Amino acid sequence: MKGPSRIKCRIARRLFLFFATLSIIPFTVLYLVTSDHLYRFRANNYGAGTNGSRHPLQFHAVHHPALQGHRGHNGGHQAQHTDRKQLQQLQRTIKNSTGNQYPTDLEYIKHRMEQRVARLSEKCSEYRLNEPKQNYKPKAWEYLINHEYHLVWCNVFKAASTSWMYNFNLLAGYPPEFLRKTKDVPLQLARQRYPRPSVEVLQDAINSSISFLIVRHPFERLVSAYKDKIQYALPNSHHHKLGVRIIQKYRKVIKGQPWNTQKYPTFPEFVNYLLDEVRHPHAEIDMHWIPVTYFCTPCFFHYDVIAKFETLQEDQSYLISVAKLGDIVKPQWKNAGKGAHTNEVVLKLFATLDENQLRGLYEYYRYDFELFGYSAEEYFNAREPF
At 51, is the secondary structure helix, strand, or coil? Predict the structure, then answer.
């Protein structure tokens, strides 16, 4: 009988160990999940300071953080390449994550914003664009200030301006149903609630608000403006009449006949017009294609968020979150423009320009390339030989 008894005892001990182990597993999992949530909560609500200390998420630092090292002429291309790699990594993270991953994503994008603000500060100092000059002074005319929600924005046309003009009109109290049905120009509606500020008023507002800017690759923004305002200009509109004048002045005539019967200016004709306006200014450059550097004078003002058209979905989600606008504003994209705007289409249009036109455009938008970390390398490589 001793043999069977020992066998029963061994079986009982093993069963006891087995069930004891099973009972411990839920407590272990609960501890790990709780710890992970606590860590993420802290990561979301506290950022690492420059000295490694922890401090609450803040805006409006007195000094812009300095960039590590100095970028050479390829700095814009490297920054754009890094941005693209980071975006791909973030997209993979979001795709494979669950809901509790979101705070980590916010922290990642917060770091992206700090890098962009740092680059802006460095390049403004490098080119002395933060020093007022006779023909370059702080310009507050195009900014919108929402005092209730403590939000400041410079409206850069052809850089998600339609979407955020709609958002600012929502924040101004216009009902969504009214905004959907009205025939009024959104900018005119906005200016009824957001008077154009002085530089002093704008500076005061920035000190107590979240200020932001949305930028776009200068050449892609130019193509978007060309297609929207020149190629697809509304009949008898200002831009339609401008297109007629461009054709009359810049279209080549061979043996008494126009070489092209296209009813709107070709892209090279439009570029010739623009470069002549830059070289011999007689009026303000059109707001749809003037460089951001001159339109918003960003070197004179501080920004908490510099969003990019190329990473707009993540960037505006971050902005909405930190500004606590989620109950009113949703990430969305209105008026993507007329016609295809793929990178291939943009490159194809630029390939029709000669070297002087391309270099002229690059020089005109040079500061936008430098301040915001864009590169023109692929556009020079795509140009057709002449």
Answer: coil
